């Protein structure tokens, strides 16, 4: 089993990376393979609503969004990490998730996921809620911990001093490993994914 840890910060080795690293450490201790995916710090295009991905199954912009959707095919779980900007996740993480989930949502569906936020002081809970909505629309079990999934600090070394935050990351990794093992056990015993109904309506008829 493999979990992909997505770093939505512009800094590959910043505060968000420290938080994700602690989750990965706990997952590894539980026998779960991990891989880090850094979105990068180059300019990204937002979704332009062209509808091309409905025909081809991939976004017309070939960057981190398509790479993430491709990685998702071989992964069993996900942790999406982001710094907090103006009480919101990074725009680069959201533009990649917008496009990857819309074009390749089937590769994420029914796989456990968690949001991890890093903030100097505040805005993490509001940011966590934003990222969690991607999971809840894609039939993905949302993994929780023993507190909200965030850490505090303006620099990586300050995050490491956030003892409760780091403990929360560790417990998050343990909880995700536990859920993944239960899903695998269910699969081996004939428990299949549900087949969901699909119906889209507009409020104005």
How is this structure best described in words?
- The chain has 205 residues and is α/β, with parallel strands linked by helices.
- It contains seven helices and six strands; from the N terminus they run βαβααββαβαβαα.
- Strands 1, 2, 3, 4, 5 and 6 form a six-stranded mixed sheet that branches.
- Strand 3 (77-85) and strand 4 (88-89) form a beta hairpin.
- The termini are far apart.
Write the topology of this structure.
Elements: E1 2-7, H1 15-29, E2 33-38, H2 52-56, H3 64-72, E3 77-85, E4 88-89, H4 91-104, E5 113-119, H5 124-136, E6 150-152, H6 156-161, H7 163-188
Parallel strand pairs: 1-2, 1-3, 3-5, 5-6
Antiparallel strand pairs: 3-4
Key traits:
205 residues; alpha/beta; six-stranded mixed beta sheet; 7 helices; 6 strands; 43% helix; globular
Structural class: alpha/beta
- Compute the separation of the termini in Å: 45 Å
Return the average pLDDT rounded to an integer.
96
Count of separate DSSP helical elements: 7
Low-confidence sequence ranges: none
**In what range is the share of β-strand residues?**
15-25%
- The radius of gyration computed from the alpha-carbon positions, rounded to a whole number of angstroms, is 17 Å
Main sheet: strands, sense, barrel: 6 strands, mixed
Share of helix, binned: 40-55%
Name the helix and strand elements from N-terminus to C-terminus, one letter apiece: EHEHHEEHEHEHH
The total strand number stands at: 6
Could you say which overall geometry the principal axes of the C-alpha atoms support? Answer: globular
């Amino acid at each position: 089993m493999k979990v992909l840890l997505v770093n939505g910060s512009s800094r590959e080795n910043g505060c968000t990376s420290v938080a994700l690293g602690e989750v990965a450490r706990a997952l590894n201790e539980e026998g779960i393979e991990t891989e880090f995916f850094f979105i990068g710090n180059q300019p990204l295009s937002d979704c332009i609503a062209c509808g091309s991905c409905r025909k081809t199954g991939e976004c017309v912009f070939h960057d981190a969004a398509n790479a993430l959707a491709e990685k998702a095919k071989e992964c069993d779980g996900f942790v999406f990490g982001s710094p907090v900007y103006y009480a919101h996740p990074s725009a680069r993480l959201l533009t990649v998730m917008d496009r990857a989930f819309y074009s390749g949502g089937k590769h994420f569906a029914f796989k456990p996921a968690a949001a991890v936020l890093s903030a100097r002081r505040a805005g993490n809970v509001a940011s966590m809620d934003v990222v969690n909505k991607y999971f809840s629309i894609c039939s993905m079990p949302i993994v929780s911990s023993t507190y909200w999934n965030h850490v505090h600090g303006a620099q990586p070394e300050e995050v490491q001093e956030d003892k409760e935050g780091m403990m929360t990351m560790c417990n998050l990794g343990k909880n995700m490993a536990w859920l993944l093992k239960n899903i695998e056990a269910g699969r081996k015993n004939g428990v299949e994914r549900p087949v969901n109904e699909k119906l889209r309506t507009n409020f104005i008829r």
